[in-house]
Amino acid sequence: MKNTILKKVLKALETELAHLSGAGEQASAGAMHSAPCAEKQRDTTGLEAAYLAHGYSMKCKILTTQIEKMKAFEIEDFTGQEVDIGALVEVEMNGEIDCYMLLHCGGGSEIKVDGRQVTVITPESPLGKALMGNIEAGVVFIRPGMEGIVLSVI
């Protein structure tokens, strides 16, 4: 199950990288085309496109690093251990059981595997912070009035 989740998150990240890369190329082309064609002194279209292209470029670099990290990531079994990066965790909150996988990136991704919905969270998220270091049957306090019980750690 964890391998399938990793593959699907990796595919989503690669798709996002392709979209961002294409958008960056369009912004870069817009910057090069707009600058010499500025009709008025205060026409900043080319400058704005250049800033946008730079932002896309930075995001692509970050995403490329995250993809490389995901490809090198080795899955462990966390049964009977503390929650850490790579753990698949079932949590009961308010009578509902939710399944989460802690990863370095891809937070917010929702993956359907074997008929179950798994949400990817990062250790920086409020729930990720609460789960890190927790164990089975541990109580998770996310914020006042919102707590859960860790049912399993895989």
Characterize the structure shown.
- With 154 residues, the chain is α+β, with helices and mostly antiparallel strands.
- It has two domains: 2-72; 88-153, no CATH class.
- It is built from three helices and six strands; from the N terminus they run ααββββαββ.
- A six-stranded mixed beta sheet has the order 3-4-2-1-6-5.
- A hairpin with a 2-residue loop joins β5 and β6.
- α1 (2-34) runs antiparallel to α2.
- The protein is elongated, with a radius of gyration of 21 Å.
- It starts with a helix and ends with a strand.
- The mean pLDDT is 86.
For the report, how would you describe the main beta sheet?
Answer: 6 strands, mixed
**SSE arrangement, N to C:** HHEEEEHEE
Average pLDDT works out at 86
What is the terminal separation in angstroms?
10 Å
Number of helices: 3
Shape summary: elongated
**Total count of strands:** 6
- Assess the beta-strand content as a share of residues: 15-25%
In total, how many domains does the architecture comprise? 2
Strand order of the largest sheet: 3-4-2-1-6-5
Uncertain stretches of 5 or more adjacent residues: none
Approximately how much helix is present in the residues? 40-55%
The SS-based structural class is alpha+beta
Please tell me how large the radius of gyration is.
21 Å
